[in-house]
Amino acid sequence: xxxxxxxxxxxxxxxxxxxxxxxxxxxxxxxxxxxxxxxxxxxxxxxxxxxxxxxxxxxxxxxxxxxxxxxxxxxxxxxxxxxxxxxxxxxxxxxxxxxxxxxxxxxxxxxxxxxxxxxxxxxxxxxxxxxxxxxxxxxxxxxxxxxxxxxxxxxxxxxxxxxxxxxxxxxxxxxxxxxxxxxxxxxxxxxxxxxxxxxxxxxxxxxxxxxxxxxxxxxxxxxxxxxxxxxxxxxxxxxxxxxxxxxxxxxxxxxxxxxxxxxxxxxxxxxxxxxxxxxxxxxxxxxxxxxxxxxxxxxxxxxxxxxxxxxxxxxxxxxxxxxxxxxxxxxxxxxxxxxxxxxxxxxxxxxxxxxxxxxxxxxxxxxxxxxxxxxxxxxxxxxxxxxxxxxxxxxxxxxxxxxxxxxxxxxxxxxxxxxxxxxxxxxxxxxxxxxxxxxxxxxxxxxxxxxxxxxxxxxxxxxxxxxxx
Length: 469
Known about the structure:
five-stranded mixed β-sheet; rod-shaped; transferase
């Protein structure tokens, strides 16, 4: 069991670490993408501002050789003609995207017919002295001095006052973006394992603390199993959580098990006591009959045998009920069952008066319900002064069977105890006049197995309520 709890802690720690790892990797990836996009966006904006500044100078008519270009190390700028000639370039700018820009070719005199302007082929018409509102962004490389690096380029078109188009291409370095992304990535690679170790350790400790009451319950259950002492109970942590409810449920189960075992012990003891008397009486009569046949009380021996047979049948039925035997699902006319049972009692001490029974059907075992009715009638005839009545009525969804006698009735404080097994009240303790104390116990057990109840009302009225079919 300790190995089991250890595995639970390991699985909990591993699961929590895995969840945190997945979440952190996803969050870190998203963070890196957002950071990279923001830095690239800043580089694009920086390059576009530089390109527009140079394009504005061109549009105002400033000569190409006098353009105020940014420092080549930070913002390499190259100005191209439509045919690709380099018109101007920043200091130390040697190449852009692998194309050399060392040669400068100032524009020639403008032809009167506008040849070479390319206006007819432009998708966007730019007037002389204007800068295009749109800028194109792209990645590339630039060689400044003897160092080649990656840049984000912004390309802006403009026309000088003469109507000649110039293409300004300015770049912003990506070194800062890569350094920032690399720093964040390194911090994540270092911090993630440390954070996972912290999460795993905290989860291990929390799980260990949470499972400590369960381990206490396990130890106590093992001790109860080893000692077979069902009076012991597991500790209840009182934390009002699932483990506390588990402990309470376990104690309730132990209480029910203890009650069941004690009831079984009492049943065995009482059954042994009840069986001993008729067996001893029958043996005595048989031994006397063997030694002195003329003294054999045959009728007494038969009565003892019948009593023993009935007691054995009662014990067998109780055993089947305790084993959880479910009654048959047969539709039974309760009024017809009453008439049939009463018709077989022609020689009883007190005749049973049957009222006008209502025709109502119930579902269950005919033999078991007949046994309940027989036990109730036997009990009523045993205690009645001169009258016993039986009747069936319907009360909503219930079929109600009432058996009533004119005897002294059951005292209020005894109305539940009489349904216990082997219980006989003081005026019915004679084994000659009373039974073994199982009839009412069997009747209530059968009633409950059929989804009904059996109670005592008004002292001497026994009421059996069963769900109507």
